[in-house]
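Researcher: Quick sanity check before group meeting.
Model: Go ahead. Protein one:
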Amino acid sequence: IYAKLFSAGPTQFARTAGMRLPNGEYDVAGATEFLHRLDQLYPGINRYAREIERTALQNLASSGEAFIRSPRTNRKYVADRNKLYPLLNHSIQGEAGEILKLKIVQMDAAGLGPYMTLPVHDEINLDVPNEDVKDVLHTLRNTLNDGTLLSVPLTWSVATGHRWGSLTEV
């Protein structure tokens, strides 16, 4: 989907997705069909991308700089010269990072601060004594899962274990 969001055509999409025909050539027809079906199933993707571009172009016309702002924090994301498509990534990744930080603050306010050890990309690692795991899991679910923050429910998965490489989703 990222290839689509970054305006990849069917050939680039097939290459990125590893879509090949039995003879080894890229399956451009299959990629075209997939992209068409994606547009039908999720028309909001194109609407969102066009809205980002429209906003950036309006800002370029009024201020001389193509940019968008985060709806959550008002942070300004500026486009590289003649490249508006990265603004879509800034919007998606930037908001995801903002939400992660917001949830970290909410976890601390819910009393989980002493257990939090490290945020890693889109994860929050905690070190919890065995006797507290059940209560912490309950608090995590109540804090992280959120039906009001976005237009779709925000859900998080939780995994436990003694080592990062051997976690079990709960």
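Researcher: Fine. The other one?
Model: Protein two, sequence then structure:
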Amino acid sequence: MTYWRGCNCPHSQILSLTADQNYPAASAYGAMFLGSSSPLGAKLIWKTSAPPRVKFFFWLVMHGRCWTADRRFRHGLQDTNTCVICDQEAETMDHILLGCSFSHEVWESWIRRLHLQNDVIVWEEMAMQWWLQNRKMVPKSIRRGFDSLFFLIGWMLWKERNTRTFNGVATSAAQLGAVIQEEIDAWCLAGYKHLRSLVALL
């Protein structure tokens, strides 16, 4: 096989030459990613048992692409970055998913119901890092179910934030907990078996 080293490429990518003396598009595409690395947890997002739209949402979370109040404030699109839920802290994704007093109450309720209070502790930090650390704390038999639960609760907290932001309608933590239970039931009926194994602890 013949190789060509692109002199003008910043990383001197190597393209493979086919038998008919052409450079295939696949070779050029693959060369674009030489030396690249995926963000921590990127592959696990797509392996998590959850609907595609929820996995894509967490892909945006990982890359900081969700339009929170803090991001809109930094772009000059609104006058304040205060969390619409608690009205106390800056509304970042880490805050919405873990740090907000409302989110904390929702999480604590589910952790107690699943008897994971000795394994999982909720505190505000980078949401994806928190997930990757705490999934290792739960028994391996329910770890993938915990992944699904993290995605589900995070998704529902984001939807609650959007409902408050755009519709001016708020629910209590207990009410959202009931909605989360309905969503869990729907996911289980849809065939997300790992989540079903986790909720068997209830």
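Researcher: One line on it for the slide.
Model: Residues 1-7, 9-13 have pLDDT under 50 and may be disordered.
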